[in-house]
Specification:
Strand content: 15-25%
Radius of gyration: 19 Å
Shape: globular
Distance between the termini: 6 Å
Largest sheet: 7 strands, mixed
Oligomer: single chain
Helix content: 10-25%
Number of strands: 14
Number of helices: 6
C-alpha cells in the first residue's frame, strides 16, 4: 500500500493562521517541509482519510485526481478534519459533459464530469454533520455520494480494504472520534489521529494486531499532556506499548502527524528530536510505501 500524507498540521495549521510566534515565523521563513496544512491523507490514490480544503489545495500540486477517490473515512466532524459542504461541489450536470463554449453559458453546476460513487464512512456524529449542511443529503445522488454509518469495533469492507473503527479519546462525547485499522494485501495500517489514547474497552482491539505502518498524532509535541491529544512523551509511551505487545518491531515505521506550531518546533528542528526516539516526522506531500 502507499499512503500519501497530504496535510500534517493540527487545527491551527503550521504556521498558525494569525500567529507570529517564533515557531510560526521560522516556518514562514524556511518554507518547504516546515509548512503544514490541516491533517488529511490518501491511501492508494482511492481512499481518503478525512476531507478538508487543504486536500483540494494540495491535490493539483501533487498530481492527485480527486475524481478517482472511491472511499472517504472520516475520523470526526471537527472542521479541520471534515468539511462536508465540499461534497456539494460534486453536483454534476451530465448533460453538459460534452458541451463547449457558449453552450455551457446556460448551465449552472460545479462539476461537468461523470464521477464514480464516493462512499463516506463515519459515526452518527459525522452523519449529523452531513445533515447540518442545508440540502446536502437531499442532493446526495446528484452529488454522487452515499453515507454509511459505521460502529466502533465492527469490521467493514470498502472495496478491497478491511477496516476496523476504534473509539478514540478525543472530544467530550464518547464515540465522537474514531481511529482506523486498515488491512489489504497482507499489510496493516494503524491510523491514529485525533486521539489522546484509548479506553480500557478499545485498547485490547488496538493491541490485537500487528502493524506494518503506524501513523500517530503528535499534536502537543514538547508541551503539556492533555486528555484528547498526544505529545511526544505519550507518543513514545504508545510506541513502547506496541513494541511490548508485539504489534510492531523496532524497525516498523511510526510517523507522527497533526503537529501544532505552539508546542512542536518547525520540521527542520523537530525531526532531529523525533529520530532520536525511533520515529519519523511526516510532512505535507510525503509518500510512504509499506
Amino acid at each position: 500500500m502507499k499512503l500519501q500524507m497530504i496535510g500534517t498540521g493540527a487545527g491551527e495549521g503550521y504556521p498558525g493562521l494569525w500567529c507570529d510566534c517564533n515557531n510560526c515565523r521560522s516556518a514562514r521563513e524556511k518554507g518547504g517541509k516546515n509548512l503544514r496544512g490541516n491533517c488529511t491523507a490518501l491511501l492508494d490514490g482511492e481512499l481518503l482519510l478525512d476531507m478538508n480544503p487543504h486536500f483540494f489545495e494540495m491535490a493539483p500540486q501533487l498530481g492527485i485526481h480527486p475524481a478517482n477517490i472511491r472511499y472517504l473515512l472520516v475520523t470526526h466532524p471537527h472542521e479541520d478534519h471534515f468539511t462536508p459542504w465540499l461534497l456539494s461541489q460534486r453536483a454534476t450536470d451530465l448533460s453538459a459533459a460534452n458541451m463547449h463554449g457558449d453552450e455551457l453559458l446556460s448551465r449552472v453546476a460545479p462539476c461537468f464530469t461523470s464521477l464514480p460513487l464516493l462512499t463516506v464512512y463515519g459515526s452518527e456524529h459525522v452523519e449529523k454533520a452531513l445533515h447540518a449542511v442545508s440540502g446536502l443529503m437531499e442532493k446526495a445522488e446528484q452529488c454522487r455520494f452515499a453515507f454509511r454509518r459505521i460502529t466502533a469495533g465492527q469490521d467493514f469492507y470498502a472495496g478491497a480494504y478491511r477496516i476496523t473503527p476504534i473509539d478514540s479519546i478525543h472530544g467530550a462525547v464518547p464515540g465522537y472520534t474514531q481511529n482506523y485499522i486498515l488491512r489489504k494485501d497482507g499489510k496493516t495500517l494503524l491510523y491514529a489521529t485525533d486521539t489522546g489514547g484509548y479506553t480500557a474497552q478499545a485498547l485490547p482491539l488496538v493491541l490485537s494486531h500487528r502493524y506494518d505502518l503506524v501513523v500517530l498524532e503528535g499534536t502537543f509535541g514538547l508541551g503539556a499532556d492533555v486528555p484528547g491529544h498526544m505529545n511526544l512523551q505519550k507518543d513514545r509511551q504508545f510506541r513502547n506499548l506496541l513494541l511490548q505487545h508485539g504489534c510492531i518491531h523496532s524497525d516498523t515505521p511510526v510517523y507522527l502527524t497533526h503537529i501544532c506550531p505552539h508546542w512542536a518546533p518547525p520540521h527542520d528542528e523537530y525531526i532531529k528530536i523525533i529520530q532520536g526516539y525511533g520515529m519519523h516526522l511526516a510532512y505535507d506531500g510525503e509518500e510512504i510505501s509499506f
